[in-house]
Design brief:
The protein is α+β, with helices and mostly antiparallel strands. 27% of the residues lie in helices and 15% in strands. The longest helix is centred in the last third of the chain and has 11 residues.
Length: 124
């Protein structure tokens, strides 16, 4: 959904994407994370493997996740241009997920609209 609704439709170098892959399911490991990189084949995407799920645990404490979850995974953050990552990661400007049905449930068109608004791009 991110590839088709965002990367293929939001053009230009004003968009950068960080994909953090982490173990959540029993089959998740570094090799599976490497394979998952093929889901986002775009030069604007930088991929990371977080073997300890550290970032997911941290954001699990910073955000109120559906159903009381403590691990932020299958989460899609949008940060305003110029957002700086310091000792603590910043809260996202907006975000969506696939952790349960609520108003933040991932919607590709809505996610693209959030991004286009932040980078000042006309909708495609």
């Amino acid at each position: 959904m991110v590839h088709d609704n965002v990367l293929k439709q939001v053009h230009g170098d004003d968009l950068s994407v960080i994909a953090v892959w982490m173990p959540v399911l029993p089959s998740d490991n570094a090799a599976a994370g490497k394979d998952a990189e093929s889901l986002l084949p775009d030069p604007r995407v930088v991929h990371y493997w977080d073997a300890e799920s550290s970032l997911g645990k941290l954001y699990g404490r910073l955000l109120t996740l559906p159903r009381g979850r403590q691990l932020a995974w299958d989460i899609y953050f949008v940060f305003a241009p110029g957002t700086k990552w310091q000792d603590e990661p910043p809260l996202p400007t907006d975000w969506m997920h696939q952790l349960g049905r609520d108003e933040r449930l991932l919607n590709g068109d809505k996610l693209r609209g959030m991004i286009q608004e932040l980078v000042g791009m006309a909708p495609s």
